[in-house]
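User: I'm new to structure prediction. If I give you an amino acid sequence, what do you actually give back? Let's try with this one:
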Amino acid sequence: MVTETAKTRMVILNPTSPPLEVDARLATRPLDLNGKVLGLLNNSKLNASNLLDEVGELLSQRYEFAKVIKGSKPNASTPCPEHIVKEFAASCDVLVTSNGD
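Assistant: Good question. You get back a string of structure tokens that encode the predicted 3D arrangement of the chain. For your 101 residues, that looks like this:
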């Protein structure tokens, strides 16, 4: 959107755009985490792994997971590669991600 005022002849640019419509929905939550596979995926920022280790430890004290799978995306500033997303989606019942700093 461009707005031009008559008095000052200043052009004001609006750099925003409307949000994109996304067909997304929340995943169905399991009633119980016992016996489930927990995925812990960190974003590779400083302390992300430490945060997930603590969260995983706290959850493991509360629930008996069948397995815990840990992983990292290669770069915090880019989206998670599709092969990692597919691997976790196929292997995990629940997933916790972190954004450390």
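You can read the tokens as a compact description of the fold. Here is one thing that stands out. DSSP finds two helices and five strands in the chain.
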